[in-house]
Amino acid sequence: MKTTNSKRLFDQAQRYIPGGVNSPVRAFRSVGGNPLFIKRARGATVTDVDGNTFLDYVASWGPIILGHAHPAVVRAIQRAASQGTSYGAPTEQELILAQMICQALPSIEKVRLVSSGTEAVMSAIRVARGFTKRDAILKFDGCYHGHADHLLVKAGSGAATLGLPDSPGVPKAFAGHTLTAPYNDIEAVKSLIQKHWRKLACIIVEPIAGNMGVVLPKKEFLRQLRTLTRQHGILLILDEVISGFRVAYGGAQTLYGIKPDLTCLGKIIGGGLPVGAYGGSKDIMDLVAPAGPVYQAGTLSGNPLAVTAGIVTLKKLSTSGVYEKLDRRGAQLAEGLGKAAKQANVPFFQTRVGSLMGGFFSDTRVVDFSSAKKSDTARYAKFFHKMLERGSYFAPSQFEAAFVSTVHTVSDIDHTIEAAHQVFKKL
Ligand code: KE4
Asked: What is the dihedral of CA 66, 71, 73, 78, to 10 degrees?
């Protein structure tokens, strides 16, 4: 596969951009080799600067649920751009998107739009601290909630991939307010709450963990979290930046019937443009400036282009049958990969909710970060490159997710499965 242009650009980029990328996981560090520079994308495929086209299962880490350059999304962005790109003033579009989010997720009575998932989580935690007047937070090992200082404590995703669970530059004092527990370990949560509940403002969790690979919540785990937090006046924050509008129109909270105090969103609600959001009950969200004293602001918050792309995307997702179709495509891919692994006698532990899925080269169940880390990441790296050579682009890290979109066809996925049958035999 010709990659000379990507290589040339990567060499140059490293002179001007740390690691040559604007987000660590893109650098292929955990799978080896050089990142592909993408030139364009359309539908289910991306094409790199050397003209190689791949079926895309990265989906820009989640946002591209309708496929790349969806005509309706592109037209809407073009129309919005012709009326200006940013005003720094309220617009009707922001009201429409806020209403759509509140209608989709009944736990959200009021929502604030920001420009990234990190900003959404950072702000939600600040509101939780302001509301409870407590300082400590509890997160789960291997969950990633963006790169705010107090969250880079045993984070998943890029931090785990780079082996920097406690990133330099995070003052001990900041990390000191962050308690951590193994994902799915309710007993560990109980003992931490017993000791610290008086200072615990919130527990933040990915209802379906997507940053240590995809790890599903044990039955009752989320419900037990909800009960324990309610008993101790601790707010429950569901970080649905990945799962929101991905696994269901109402996110994982609708799927699992959990009513959080605050929800963080991102990715899909911006239709591929920079966006984040956090929301919850009126009495909590009315603490946010200017309604209340908890300060949070943003030059490009509610940007007209991102909001327009988000509105069109959510409108498409709200039509009936979309999630059933995403689930069918997800099942086709997961079952195909599972069969290929089985026929090649390769241990492959799979997880899936709808069009969000993961696969670990592990012969044991993966239920948390320590079991995820036991998987054979070297084998994953080989899988990644061999699938790339055969035209399918998966996440360049074992600690990420795979996604299918509404425009991956049955034959696209069959093509990937055929490649997988060849690849698993060579792992
Ligand atoms: P952003 O700041 O990257 O928009 O969102 C942070 C974030 C928050 N919460 C969850 C559950 C997330 O998964 C993320 C970001 N996800 C990673 C990939 N798993 C972003 C990819 C990257 O870091 O380049």
From this structure: 160
Atom of ligand 1 nearest to the CA of 61: 18
Does residue 152 have its Cβ closer than 6 Å to ligand 1?
no
Name, in order, each residue with C-beta under 8 angstroms of 66's C-beta and a sequence gap of 6 or more. 73, 271, 313, 316, 317, 405, 406, 407
For 150, the token pair is 């107090």
Atom of ligand 1 nearest to the CA of 121: 8
Domain that holds residue 275: 71-317
- Residues 112, 232, single domain; the answer is yes
Among 421, 123, 388, which Cα is nearest to 279's?
A: 123
Same domain, 63 and 76: no
Both 92 and 60 in one domain: the answer is no
CA distance 365 to 138: 25
pLDDT, tens digit (0-9, with 9 covering 90-100), for 210-220? 999 999 999 99
Q: What's the length of the chain?
A: 427
Per-residue pLDDT tens for 228-242? 999 999 999 999 999
Last residue of a domain, one of 317, 334, 364: 317
| Cross-strand pairs, 402 | 357
Same domain, 185 and 285: yes
> For residue 202, what are the β-bridge partners?
137, 235
The tally of domains found in the chain comes to: 2
pTM: 0.97
Describe the crossing of helices 92-104 and 304-317 by its angle, rounded to 10 degrees: 40
Q: Is 146 in the pocket of ligand 1 (CB under 6 A)?
A: yes
What CATH number should be reported for the domain holding residue 92?
A: 3.40.640.10
Nearest by Cα to 30 from 361, 390, 381? 381
- pLDDT bucket at 157, cuts 50 / 70 / 90: low
Is the torsion defined by CA of 130, 134, 135, 136 positive or negative? negative
Q: Within this chain, do residues 311 and 325 fall inside the same structural domain, yes or no?
A: no
Same domain, 121 and 30: no
Q: Are residues 356 and 412 in the same domain?
A: yes
C-alpha angle 66-265-20 in degrees, rounded to nearest 5? 75
Verify whether ligand 1 is closer than 6 Å to residue 211 (CB atom): yes
Distance 418 CA to ligand 1 centre (A): 31
pLDDT in tens, 286-305: 999 999 999 999 999 999 99
Q: 276 with 348, same domain?
A: no
